[in-house]
Write a structure and sequence with these properties.
Elements lengths: L2 H11 L4 H29 L7 H27 L3 H14 L1 H9 L10 H21 L3 H22 L4 H14 L3 H23 L12 H18 L4 H8 L11 H22 L1
């Protein structure tokens, strides 16, 4: 039985529409933010180490599914949207709308330049996909087409790194990976799993997890020893996102019973705003 017939068999047996993938993504994101923003602040307030807290670890682990599913949905959205410009405009608009709620929830201040919200990364990933689509239609030579789209994609990823948007370079490239492999599930599973564990570990190693800019070849061993526990935890933490790749395998490419489009966009800033207000009020 070939891959396409196998996929069709599972599509019939376990049909998961886009609406269900979105529901899982939003629930996982909500749990991740409740754990990472409120529960973490509560533990810190008690003077308890959150790294060793089982509830915190479980909440963050489940939350790892969210970005994988959002990355796949961006890839699907850019493949099926009637207007890429409107799609990108909505992402950019909600990146701006979500910034104050994101800052409140993550840093307890209305404006913070330490980190920017995930919509910036989603926008950059979607724009990269549009560039790939345009380059493939303009240039018939596949190698030239890849090169033409590679440089702008890397530039957008670098911009996200400079802006310190959530998931940064890795997030943009992962969205592009989902787009490139979404019709080839075995390749998606293998490359996605590699990106989620050793790939994310190397990314965090590259950007310096303590945001230090003074790490050199001579100081690297000491820096690594200082951060090895957090770095090693990143090696396996993102690997929980592989569960999202398994859910994507059961996706039947149908919309399902969708909620209004506005809900999916407003949920992100609204829930972050509520979490931010609670965090500022209580902690």
């Amino acid at each position: 039985m070939n891959y396409s017939s196998t996929r069709y068999y599972y599509m019939k047996k376990y049909p998961i529409p886009a609406s269900m993938l979105k529901a899982v993504a939003y629930l996982c994101m909500l749990l991740d933010h409740l754990t990472g923003c409120l529960y973490k602040a509560h533990l810190i307030n008690l003077g308890v180490s959150y790294d060793d807290n089982t509830l915190y670890i479980v909440g963050r682990a489940v939350g790892r599914l969210a970005f994988v599913l959002f990355a796949f949905m961006i890839a699907e959205g850019m493949s099926h949207t009637h207007s890429s410009i409107r799609y990108l405009t909505r992402l950019a608009l909600f990146a701006l709308i979500s910034e104050v709620p994101f800052d409140l929830a993550t840093s307890e201040t209305a404006i913070s330049w330490e980190k920017q919200n995930t919509f910036f990364t989603l926008f950059a990933g979607a724009l990269s996909i549009l560039i790939i689509q345009k380059s493939s239609s303009l240039v018939k030579n596949k190698a030239a087409s890849v090169l033409l789209s590679l440089l702008p994609t890397l530039a957008l990823a670098a911009l996200c790194y400079k802006l310190k948007s959530d998931y940064g370079i890795w997030g943009v490239l992962f969205i592009v990976l989902m787009y490139i492999t979404k019709e080839r599930y075995p390749l998606m599973l293998i490359s996605g799993a590699a990106a989620l564990s050793p790939g994310y570990f190397l990314y965090r190693l590259f950007v310096n997890i303590d945001n230090s800019t003074s790490v050199t070849l001579s100081t690297f061993p000491a820096w690594f020893m200082k951060n090895q526990e957090v770095l090693c935890r990143n090696f396996y933490t993102e690997a929980y996102g592989i569960a999202a790749l398994l859910l994507i395998y059961l996706y039947n490419e149908k919309k399902g019973n969708q909620l209004p489009k506005a809900f999916y966009y407003f949920f992100y800033p609204v829930h972050l705003l509520i979490i931010g207000i609670i965090r500022v009020s209580l902690f």
